[in-house]
Every structure is written in structure tokens, then in C-alpha cells.
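User: Can you predict the 3D structure for this chain?
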Amino acid sequence: MWDTVRTLFQAFMGTGLIVGWYLVSLVYLWFAEKDRRIRVLFLYMPLLLLLLYFNPIFARLICAATGDEIYYRILWLLPITVVIAYVTVSIYGRIKGRRKYWFALVSAVLVTVSGSCVYASPHFHRAENLYHMPQAVVDICDAIQVEGREVMAVFPKEMLSFVRQYTPLVCMPYGREMLVSQWKAENPLYDAMEAQVLDMDVILPLAKTYSSHFVIVPEHKPITGDPEEYGFTLIDHIDGYAVYQDTSVYIGL
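Assistant: Here is the predicted structure, written as C-alpha cells:
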């Protein structure tokens, strides 16, 4: 358990410099801050939180209830940014003359070099629309939605995290649980949809067991089987995806 707690904290620290400035700020508050309200909010509560976080008994109880993969979220309660900003401004106010401007400049540089550019992460992409999600999701959901009711649609992996963010009226037989390895979710329909060759003789019967009105597949993948044998008809090509509809079920499109 201790190794898990330590590993999660190291991952949370990133480069470690920001957390280092935070710990230095706590030391400053301990000796210099006189306002009792500030001490309680910015000093005592964070210290108590850190003591709890590194307490193996507390960690074992929380991990047993929620799982160790989210235990690090306790650290989100630390007011790191606010404390560093408060201490920096506090020290700035105590310095006289031109030295305060040098202090402000050095502080800004130190904060800048303490982290990394978040937009360098492969998880960030230039937004395609106001919804900050792939335009293909928006276009497909708009095309298959039926006013006043829900529809069930099977989507490929790359769309699972976005559909329900865009609309609650498009439901899916599986969702984000398939993307989190720790949850060990299994679904034969998901496996068939993620195969290199899409076998409609497997996908469409499984889709019908979930009462799916639509099946959306990427056009770059080869397809075997005849969708029309299962009552599905190709109704549109949208942004590189083929949209099949179960025409044996009336949904009011």
C-alpha cells in the first residue's frame, strides 16, 4: 500500500518543482502568517490532508472502498496554486524598493519553468468546434437523433467518450467502461467493432440484442457479410463513417 501511495504522489508531482514551491510556502506560512483564518485554511487543513493521504490505514480504507486508481484525487483538495500565489504576493508586499520588481520577475520565471506546456500532451488537439469534440460525433448524432425520444446506436471506440457529452438522446450498448483497463469490462459487441475486419454476421446480430437502431463503422475498415440480411441499410456516409440503420424498426426519422 505504501508503494502505491508513494507512486501516486510522485505522479501527481510532475516535475516536482511546483510541489516544492508549495512545501516552501507552507513553511513560510508556519513562521510568518499571523491571521488565524489563513493559517487554518492554507496551512492546517492541507497539512492534515497530507497526513491522512500518507497514512497507510486511511489509504487502505479508501482504496478498499473506491479502488487505488483514484486515490490520488485526494491530492486535488490541496490548494496548491492559491497558496503559492498568496505567499508570493505576501512576500512581495513586504519587500521595499526596486527589489520587489526583481522578486516578481524571478517568481514568474520560476513558476513558468516549474511545469511543462499542457498543449504538448498527445491528449490535446485543436478544437474542431464549440463543443470541443470531434466534428464527426456532432454530425452523426445530429443525423440519427429523433426529436422527443432516445435512440440506441453502436459507435466505434474513438467516439465513446464524446457521444453522451453531446446529447443524452443517443444511447449506447457500451461506453467509457470499455476504455478503462482497470475496470476489466468485457463486451463481445465492442470486441467485434474493434476487429481489423468488421464481420457484420457477428456485429449486427449482437447489435439487435441491444435493440440498436444504428451501427456506425469507420469506412477505412473492410467489411464482411451482408447488412441487409439482418435488416440494416446503409443510410449515409458522414465524415469518414458509414451509418447503418435497422429499417425493420420504425423510429420516426
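The chain has a mean pLDDT of 89. The longest strand covers residues 232-238.
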